[in-house]
Amino acid sequence: MNNPITPTRRQRSGICIVGNGAVAKAAALGFAQAGQSVTLLTPPVSTPPPAANSSWDVRVYALNHTAYHLLTSLKVWGALDAARVAPVDAMQVFGDGAQAGGLNFDAFGAHTGTLAWIVEDSNLNQALDAALRFASNVTQVTGKAVELRRGADTASVLLADGSAIDAELVVGADGAESWVRGQCDIGMDYRSYAQRAIVTNFECQHPHHGVAHQWFTGDEGIVALLPLPGDRVSLVWSAPDMLADSLTRMSATMLAERLSQYAHDKLGKLTPVQPELVRAFPLRLMRPHSMVANRVALVGDAAHVVHPLAGHGMNLGFGDVADLVRLVSERESHRDIGDERVLARYARARKEEVLLMQLATDGLERLFGAGFEPLRVARNLGLNLLDKLPVLKRRLISHALGKQ
After folding, report:
1. Residues near 259 by Cβ (< 8 Å), separated by ≥ 6?
2. What is the C-alpha to C-alpha distance for residues 28 and 83, in angstroms, rounded to an integer?
3. Rounded distance, CA 371 to CA 392, Å?
């Protein structure tokens, strides 16, 4: 039951987007480019974002071709600091145990110029922020949302200061703990992986040649070293909680030594870029029961959270934005922006890709996290077999790239 709040000030937009991350900003730009009036509602932040400097952000994304095409269409890709973007030209995946399997991908075999691009969170958000400053039909509002009211023709986001934003469609781009999703009482399946992603950056002794390396280690989780510009790599170590506790207590120098058992043959000695900067993020699988509700669409982590072993969380979010903007733009003239038929088309359009990525990442995590020896042998044999089946491998690569 709604509490009897009567807003003192109202603002009207075609679309209200709730969130302050890259997916929310891309959605605001996409809808603005499509001619919609947009209000981007961002929550108040207790601390200002760090100033841009020469240090390397430990939070990075492996952006695929879906992300590239969206950001290019939004005039954002060209605004990135290109000197801080690293193309991924190849990927080497290693199994575990004495008979470790292996799988190799490269851009040539995938018939593309680049498999992916490694982009820092700060670089991406600075480019999006710059684009938003020139978006004439985007209004940015900072405030705490306290209630979402949804009717037949409109939805209203009520703010703590007594104002309200009325819109035909509310887009929840507010992350895994989505306030918008909670206001719609959308159920969710949740699984903790009992892991944390340990992230930091290193200088490497030998050039990485644009190769991303990933080791499925079994008991120690999944170790990925992603290329950064120059002879630098970004670590994403999906470590079981007990190991993560130990790793986060280590100095970055000790962490580099621990990594040598995997990386030394490929990259040589690792040296911390910023010894004090090691971060950890909890890993979980989240499957909301719906990506839409009356007058509401969810995008990004508000709509799905997957294991980072394939690096596709941000790519799924950008895919959501691209499909939602397209389907709203293609709607029949008699349907408004938040029409239930339009939102149902969006949910159908995203269902297959999201489900496939959830099944793939969750299945791989379960498969390579199991310590049963016959299964260990079978999964390594499977990696080797897949590596020798070029047609199937190309299809898998094409899907991962976001190419049709």
Report:
1. 202, 223, 225, 235, 237, 270
2. 26
3. 27
d(CA 51, CA 38): 27
Three-state DSSP class for residue 38: strand
pLDDT in tens, 307-327: 887 667 899 999 999 999 999
The alpha-helical segments, DSSP class H, found in 113-240 are 121-133, 179-183
Distances (CA, A) of 154 to 43, 202, 262: 22, 50, 55
Per the CB < 8 A criterion, the answer to whether 27 and 173 are in contact is: yes
**395 token code pair:** 């299809």
Per DSSP, the three-state class of 61 is strand
Beta-bridge mates of residue 239: 196
Q: Around Cβ 213, how many Cβ atoms within 10 Å?
A: 20
- Chain centroid to CA 385: how far? 30
Q: Which two tokens stand for residue 340?
A: 């239930």
Domains of the chain, each with CATH number or no CATH: 9-401 (3.50.50.60)
Task: Read off the pTM.
Answer: 0.88
**Looking at this protein, which amino acid is placed at residue 289?**
H
- Single-letter code of the amino acid located at 63: L
